[in-house]
Amino acid sequence: MDLIERLREAVGAAQVLTGADTARYGSDWTHRYVAEPLAVVRPGSTVEVSAVLALAHETGTPVVPVSGNTGLAGGTYAPGALMVSLERMNAVREIRPEARIAVVEAGVILSTIHEACAEHGLVFPLTFGARGSAMIGGALSTNAGGSNVLRYGSTRGLCLGLEVVMADGRVMDLMTELHKDNSGYDLRDLFIGAEGTLGLITAAVLKLSPMPAAYATAMVATPGLPEALRLLNRLQEATGGAVEAFEFMPRSYVDAHLAKFPEARAPFEASYEVNVMVEVGATAPKDATPAEDGSIPVVEYLQEVLAGLMEEGQILDAVVAQNAAQRAEMWKRREDAAEVSLTRLPLINNDIAVPVDKVAAFLERMAVELPRIDAGAEGSSVAHLGDGNIHYTVYPAAQDPDVHDAIMEKVEEVARDLGGSFSAEHGIGVTKRPSMARRKNLVALDAMRAIKAALDPKGILNPGKVLPD
What we know:
Blueprint: H1 3-11, E1 16-17, E2 39-41, H2 46-59, E3 63-66, E4 82-85, E5 92-96, E6 101-105, H3 110-118, E7 122-123, H4 136-142, H5 149-152, E8 159-165, E9 171-174, H6 187-191, E10 200-207, E11 209-210, E12 214-222, H7 225-239, E13 243-250, H8 251-260, E14 274-282, H9 285-288, H10 297-312, E15 317-320, H11 324-335, H12 337-341, E16 348-353, H13 359-373, E17 378-384, E18 389-395, H14 401-417, H15 433-439, H16 442-455
Parallel strand pairs: 2-4, 3-4
Antiparallel strand pairs: 1-2, 5-6, 6-10, 7-11, 8-9, 8-10, 12-14, 12-15, 13-14, 13-17, 16-18, 17-18
C-alpha cells in the first residue's frame, strides 16, 4: 500500500489532501515561498500525529508542519514534502484561573485563547497583528515575540509545558504545570523556537496573567530616540514595570501607512520623525477604578507625566486615548506594519535585535551604509523599542540578487557590531539560513547539528530550514 493510502487509513480519507486541494497551504503569507507539497495531512489527535510521523519516518518522507502560515521567513516551504496541519487540534482543553494556566492544543488560534482567558479575567499576553489566524503551535515553534514582550516576555517565557511528537512517532510528554523543575535538561526550551526541525508540538501549558482593568495608551512624538527611552524608563519606574508596549514608528512608516490606508488618521496634526505608541496596563484598583468624574487614575497619571516631559522639552507632542475606539486606532496603526511593508516589491525583510540604547545607532549607520551598496534603495522601519527589536525593511533599487545579499549582509554586520542579533522573533526558516552560516558561532552550529542528528536521524523534520548546509 502506498504512503497516501496508509495516511488515509490513519487519519481518514477526507483529511489527506492532494493536488489542487493543497493550494491554500502551499504559499506562505508573503507569497515568496510557493510550492506544491506531496500531500497535506490534517490529524485530529496526538495519536494520529504519532501515526503520521511513524509512517513518514518509516518511508523517509520529509515532513513540514504548518500552523496559520503567517510566517515571514519561509518556514513552511514544502516542495514535495508531506505537510502536517494541526488546524483540527484546536481545543482549549482547560483554563485553571487559580493556577493561572491554560492547557491548549497546538492548532488553537491565538485570538481564541485571548477570548477564552478573558472570560476568567485573565490574559495570555502574546499578541501581534496576525493573532486572528496565527496558531499557538506556530508561535511556540518560532518563539514569537509581539508587542508585549517588554512586560511579559516572548513565547518561551509564557510556556510551562509541551507535548511533542518526535520524528519516529514517539510522544514526549513534557506537559508540566510546574514553575520549577530541575530534573535534568530543559527539553521544553529546546523545542520552542526550533521551527519543527526537532519534533512537532501538539499541545502546551501556557502561563496566564491578570487582565489589566484599565489601559493608558498614547501616541507620543519625541525629539529623538534617546528622549523616547528616557520616557520609557520614567514610566517603568513610576508604574513598577507596568509598561506593556513601547512601539516606535518613524515618519516614513506613518506616511506609508496613510498611503496604504487613506481612511486612517495621522497620529498628530503635525508630522514628526519619531512617533511612539506607549501603553500602560493597570491591575491595581487604585490605578484602574474610575473617579467620580469618570476619569481613570492610570490615564490621568500618564497625562501628567507627558505634560511634565513636554515642559522639559523631552517630548514634542502627545495624544492620549480617551476611549476604546481611540486605543484601537493606535494599535491598528502599529499592527498594520506587515501589510504596509508588502505594498512594494521586491523587499528585503530584516528582523534584528540590538541593545535598547543602540536602536538609534543602528538606524543612523544604515542610513549611511545603505546608499553605498544601492544608491536608490530606501529603508523603512518599525521597532519594538522597549526590547530593541527592529523590523528593518529595505526596498532595493537594484534588481541584482548579489546586491540584495550585500544589503542583508550589511544589516547583519551593523547589528553584530552593536552587540545584536540578525534574528529577533520571526525565526530562521529559509530566508536566514545564509545568515546562520555567516554569523552564528561555529561551535553553536556544531551543537545544533548534533542535536538535530540525535532527535531526527533521518533528517525528515522540516528539512532545509534553520541550519545551514
